[in-house]
Write a structure and sequence with these properties.
Blueprint lengths: L2 H22 L6 E5 L2 E5 L66 E7 L9 E10 L4 E14 L4 E9 L11 E6 L14 E9 L5 E11 L7 E4 L5 E9 L1
Antiparallel strand pairs: 1-2, 3-11, 4-9, 5-8, 5-10, 5-11, 6-7, 6-9
Length: about 250
């Protein structure tokens, strides 16, 4: 082996020794051998069972370092793609049909017909009428007649004032009426006394369909009593008021 080759071999062994020293911190306790051009750190001769060291099969392993600090949280990732639709669920049991009732808002509906002076002296027949538009079929009508009424007679008599709806008296539930009865006067008293009093005929009627309704006030006789001399609306205002009400 030439001098140059010997110098190169020494140089390589010196580099390997330095690498072992850098890797383990105490190269003086280790021997270095170059085998086939490679570098190996061999176990020193003084290591024994009484002086154990950690050994990874080739080089001595140092103690574990201090755990590092937690890093900063990473940025949020991008949203994932939508998943595939789920399977259809099991068919449910047949439910009960419940009928719901919704209360709609109620709009007032009323009308008034008035007369300054009817002065109607008939004893039998229609006195006055007022046409009304009923908006709902399931509502009721409240009617009112207000005016002066009078009845006179020498013997006992009775007169009846009542309402009709499209020509028929109310049947839901009963007619709407008012009566005046005069008994037979005594010889000491004037049985033909003429008194006009403001009175009213009022009531509620159900079962009338929606649409135009002719509401009229009539005068007639009472059952089993003779008629007298009737008068309606003398010298004063008379009126019919009609109002549609929810049931």
């Amino acid at each position: 082996m030439s001098q140059n080759q010997l110098d190169a071999t020494k140089h390589q062994r010196g580099l390997a020794a330095k690498r072992c020293q850098l890797g383990h911190g105490f190269a003086s306790h280790w021997e270095h051998l170059a085998v086939g051009g490679g570098d190996n750190c061999l176990e020193p001769s003084w290591v024994s069972k009484e002086h154990p060291v950690e050994y990874n099969g080739m080089c001595l392993q140092g103690p574990a370092g201090v755990p590092g600090r937690d890093g900063n949280p990473g940025a949020n990732g991008i949203p994932g793609t939508p998943g595939i639709p789920g399977r259809d669920g099991f068919k449910g049991e047949k439910g009960e049909c419940l009928r719901e009732t919704f209360e709609e808002s109620w709009t007032p509906n009323y009308k008034q017909c008035s007369w300054s002076s009817l002065n109607y002296g008939i004893d039998l027949g229609k006195i006055a009428e007022c046409t009304f538009t009923k908006m709902r079929s399931n509502s009721a009508l409240r009617v009112l007649f207000s005016g002066s009424l009078r009845l006179k007679c020498r013997n006992a008599c009775c007169q009846r004032w009542y309402f009709t709806f499209n020509g028929a008296e109310c049947s839901g539930p009963l007619p709407i009426e008012a009566i005046i009865y005069l008994d037979q006067g005594s010889p000491e008293l004037n049985s033909t006394i003429n008194i006009h009093r403001t009175s009213s005929v009022e009531g509620l009627c159900e079962g009338i369909g929606a649409g135009l309704v002719d509401v009229a006030i009539w005068v007639g006789t009472c059952s089993d009593y003779p008629k007298g001399d009737a008068s309606t609306g003398w010298n004063s205002v008379s009126r019919i008021i009609i109002e549609e009400l929810p049931k």
